[in-house]
Amino acid sequence: MTTTLTAADAADAAPATPAGETTAKQRRRRGPTTGTPVGGVGASILLWGYAVLALAPLVIMVLNSFRTNADFITNPLGLPTSPTVAAYEEAWTVGSFGTYFANSLAVTAGAVAISTAVSTMAAYGLARSRARIFRWLESLFLSGLMLPIHLAILPVFFLFDGIGLIDSRLGLALMYAAAGVPFSIFVLTTFFRQLPEELEEAAVLDGASAWQTFTKIMVPMVRPALATVAVFRFVPIWNDFLYPLVLLRSESNYTLPVGLTNFFGENATNYSALFAGLVITTIPLILLFLVATKQIVAGLTAGMSK
Questions:
Q1: 30-59, pLDDT tens digit by residue?
Q2: Tell me: domain 86-301, CATH 1.10.3720.10, correct?
Q3: Phi and psi dihedrals of 118, rounded to 5?
Q4: Matching PANTHER family, A to Z (predicted)?
């Protein structure tokens, strides 16, 4: 005789489990709650404390840029009582920060664009090639990471003097672009090697040319690396003082670091304009980090959702 066990009978026959034990098992399966901070409350307090200490100089700089010199004399450590943008107008026009800003933007953006474009193509070729000579070429490129850029200041000066690129923003941008190639190739080659070769084979089967495969399939997949390279090259070029000081002669070609130093010498007691100049110099870097962070997160999470 066959006995049929229904779902109700199976439930009755199952051993009883305490409610507390069941709840504990469910919590272990679900993992920790999302509201618990990683590292505990102490780590969160330390991180927030560090954030406050790091942002405090920037906040003080911005607040002081809206004060007047009279306000500085009467209350050096106070807050702006009557906020004004007169210091920004003076720094932008009288201090020629508009010209310095345009020069820095042209030199930095041009150098980063040239360096990234050349390095992306070179890194893709080095990552996909099997010939031994390309391994030697990669080692040659990476050897440029061992020498600081400022050690070549004298050879670069004599080279530019011989070919007529002294006091030229184009020459300065080309020098920065060449100096950034080793680091860019180092980062991009690693990313390209992590991409499966089946993507290129599928593109060839679909009729795509080598250039189309590179520009439309491979380059979009290394957006995090491109954003990283752009940020790490933009910041040192934007803040560099030595090469513009040596290679540029006329004040109309000065970049922001050199122009800011020149402005400091002429307006040592004009504190509000000095703080305004510092804010003008810092704003592009902050905006770049915000934009680059979004690009990196978007590139890393691309294709994860179904």
A1: 545 555 555 678 788 888 888 888 888 888
A2: yes
A3: -65, -45
A4: ABC TRANSPORTER PERMEASE PROTEIN MG189-RELATED (PTHR43744:SF12), ABC TRANSPORTER PERMEASE PROTEIN MG189-RELATED-RELATED (PTHR43744)
